[in-house]
């Protein structure tokens, strides 16, 4: 069931990826670095402030509703009411931040993004309930349809002269459509009713506190860099960094599927067999490295050609930041898996403490590195400083999480696949830099992939036999489900 659900979500994500890629890569080209920088700042500021609206309840719901479906009705209404009141206060914080930064001209743009963020918060909670119930059909369809509605709205709105406002308006419309559809699905599969049990809501929020600390820490240090670049430099620098971030986000495509499928699955496994949980999480970490490393390596090696192809030289200053952020991708997946594992082991506060370290470390590093790198490297330098800060903070967090696991994930397993992947990536980079002339164009990327596959098969970085066995198991399971 978990594999089937993951495949359904993956199919939906491929649809959303196509639409998101087209739009997110087109917007910087259409608006240019200056205007796109203003758009990206308003979006990231709204997301930064309203990430506080989550209150960490999604992780709690995925874990608890997976075992007690009726608990969804007990807490949903009260939690939603509390969060909406909290969102009103957060809106005041956002406007005050714009006033302090001398950017009141962007209040309308940021307000529309904030409205979209509130709807996204509601939808994320409803998706968490459906994932906990192991029902993802409607989620997959709604994700795909919502993304198509958003993409069509952005393109039509921008081309008809809607300017920057077309982007957040389309977000609000698409998230509103998704909200209605997901509410119907929750009522159908969980019998969800709007009950205001304030005692249950307070208990749920209290038990969600460590998840909330972890979530806001990640969200803040994942978004604060844009606001700090805007404070120290100008919209043009924000645009350069935003373009790099947009490209890197596609390497993190599977993160929603991990959160949606892995957490409910390990909640059930952990309740019955700690040894099986240890084995499953070890395999999940190994496969995370196997599947994400080639994507990250390809982006790092081909970043310059890729950005030139997309933007015809307008965003070449984004290349160093893109290379740094893309190289971080495999570590990000490990961090997510380690955190989920610790949640299941009952070590929520170990994750929260690690996140708090990152919450302090990342802004401090940005404060030091952004102005210095901007002065040192010129165009794109602020983004280089922010990217170095992100990489450093993520490495520290990963080390702390691994230490908290105390051998639950075997280091020799990760080291075993790690050196194979390192050799394979080094061979691909050596061929790309030393043997392939720039005149080959797109053939360079194709040859990079061929070299990776060949060396990966030789070193065992690509375990072909296990991949084939996994594929046969998935096909057999699908046939069994159909029967």
Spans where pLDDT lies below 50 across 5 or more residues: none
Q: How large is the radius of gyration? A: 22 Å
Q: In total, how many beta strands?
A: 0
Please state the average pLDDT score: 80
| Distinct helical segment count | 18
Q: Indicate the overall shape.
A: globular
The termini sit apart by: 14 Å
* Content-based structural category: mainly alpha
Helical content band: over 70%
Q: How many strands, what sense, and barrel or not for the largest sheet?
A: none
* Order of helix and strand elements from N to C terminus: HHHHHHHHHHHHHHHHHH
The proportion of residues in beta strands is under 5%
Give the number of domains: 2
Topology:
Elements lengths: L1 H49 L6 H9 L5 H30 L6 H26 L4 H26 L3 H25 L7 H10 L1 H24 L2 H15 L5 H18 L1 H38 L7 H9 L1 H16 L3 H30 L3 H25 L5 H24 L7 H18 L4 H19 L1
Please provide a written account of the structure.
α10 runs parallel beside α13. Helices cover 85% and strands 0% of the residues. It is an all-alpha fold and 483 residues long. It is globular and about 65 Å long. It has helices spanning 2-50, 57-65, 71-100, 107-132, 137-162, 166-190, 198-207, 209-232, 235-249, 255-272, 274-311, 319-327, 329-344, 348-377, 381-405, 411-434, 442-459, 464-482. The longest helix is centred in the first third of the chain and has 49 residues, at 2-50. The model has no long low-confidence stretch (mean pLDDT 80). It has 18 helices and no strands. The chain starts with a helix and ends with a helix. It folds into two domains: 1-207, no CATH class; 209-409, no CATH class.
